[in-house]
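Margin note from the TA: students keep mixing up input and output lines. Inputs are the sequences; the output is the structure of the whole complex. Example:
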Amino acid sequence: MNPKYDECLEACIECLKACNTCFDACLREDDIKMMAGCIQLDRACADACAFAIQAMTTNSPFVKEICRLCADICESCARECAKHEHEHCKKCAEACLKCAEACRMRSL
Amino acid sequence: MNPKYDECLEACIECLKACNTCFDACLREDDIKMMAGCIQLDRACADACAFAIQAMTTNSPFVKEICRLCADICESCARECAKHEHEHCKKCAEACLKCAEACRMRSL
Amino acid sequence: MNPKYDECLEACIECLKACNTCFDACLREDDIKMMAGCIQLDRACADACAFAIQAMTTNSPFVKEICRLCADICESCARECAKHEHEHCKKCAEACLKCAEACRMRSL
Amino acid sequence: MNPKYDECLEACIECLKACNTCFDACLREDDIKMMAGCIQLDRACADACAFAIQAMTTNSPFVKEICRLCADICESCARECAKHEHEHCKKCAEACLKCAEACRMRSL
């Protein structure tokens, strides 16, 4: 695997971890009503990252297209998480932005 | 595919649909705080069904073990959904029980 | 779920089944060397359909983008399967084309 | 996440990578006919690891049961890969054994 490829794979793994950690933590928050959008996007984003991870590691001919889609979903999840003050949301927003950037580069 | 096999596959597909519909509907409920356990198990159960569907349709040598695990997760999700009065929860509980039974048969 | 939505969901389920059946059957063929591209695309296409099924049933805000990607992958898998005379390949090509069409409609 | 948990998560990530790399490489081998069992188990094992990764990172109540199943599948894939001399098979067998051990510990 070339370096650019590896970087994107690692960013997707970190993003999946952050999204699922945030998903679980949001479900335990008192203000869970406010977190509904975050819970939905955390799952959508983790699933997109999981899909991209499988595509990259199997050397799928659709890696670029899948990474482009993953970048879009990561950006959307980052925007939602950035609205909240919870530490898990901030960490998730950061991981999503980093992943979006790596996926965008990988999709060119 | 033999009939028993097909029945289990269809039950998993219906259960995945019901769990994901319930997941999305729970996130829109006013009493979302009460639904946190349901949201978590809906996702866990839909993912287990998706895993079982891939295993059955690829003719995996681990179909029995995977269906046994899927049955356990479906039963747990059914118990949680059965606590709530929402129509989507009742439908989900019913689909989960049916899937648990079909997966239990398939795992023998 | 509206009718168009349902139709696309069912087409993805049928396509996932056909791709995974073809994947398993290709691995048992004598001319497996010729089937390598088919085996790779069958898996990629089944995974794309599984991803689209989760997105549609959870009411993801990215359904259109995911269905557009799924349509592209289905078309590619259909082209590869159409090159082979095996019954499972012909059935798979047919299911992929039907799914590509339904996903393309859903993505508009 | 406690250390034991993290170790199992990392082992599953490395195993998923090794299985998918082996899957792709097997499809390019001249003696692909001999690799059919390896190709099938590589996919089954990567999917089991992906399922376990989602379960661990979402803090699923079924982590132990899922890790037990994942350990069984990893052991089976390791046995198959160990039959072959290809470098990607040897690396895969090693990653599978390490993952099986970590999952077995996590399942207790």
